[in-house]
Write a structure and sequence with these properties.
about 110 residues; alpha+beta; YaeB-like fold; 4-stranded mixed β-sheet; about 25% strand
Length: about 110
């Protein structure tokens, strides 16, 4: 029997999504694009739910374990514009980081 994972967001990730929305809406003056981008982020994160363990490991990619307790996993979302990092604990997927793809994320975790 399969079960559905729950998704929980780190508050910093929610804040980052709000920053993205504000930037697109207020700086780029594109409120409809801001709404679409935020919806795309949440929709793409929801796509992780069926098989979160099938995504690549950040830990293996960079050669260190980021979390002391869990393997950190990642995927591209929002048309390849962002990387989302997460770990799985039981039936919960914890979204820990959301970074633009141009970020040197390897240096953030070393």
């Amino acid at each position: 029997m399969e079960f559905e994972y729950q998704i929980k967001y780190d508050p910093a990730v929610i804040e980052k999504i709000e920053d993205i929305r504000n930037y697109i809406e207020k700086v780029l003056l594109a409120p409809s694009a801001a709404k679409k981008r935020v919806a795309s982020i949440f929709d793409d994160v929801a796509k992780i739910k069926p098989m979160p363990e099938s995504y690549p490991s950040v830990d293996q990619k960079i050669g260190i374990q980021i979390s002391k307790k869990f393997e950190t996993i990642f995927t591209l979302i929002a048309g390849g514009k962002y990387l989302v990092f997460f770990f799985i604990d039981g039936r919960t997927i914890y979204i820990t980081h959301l970074l633009p793809t141009e970020t040197d994320y390897l240096s953030l975790f070393q």
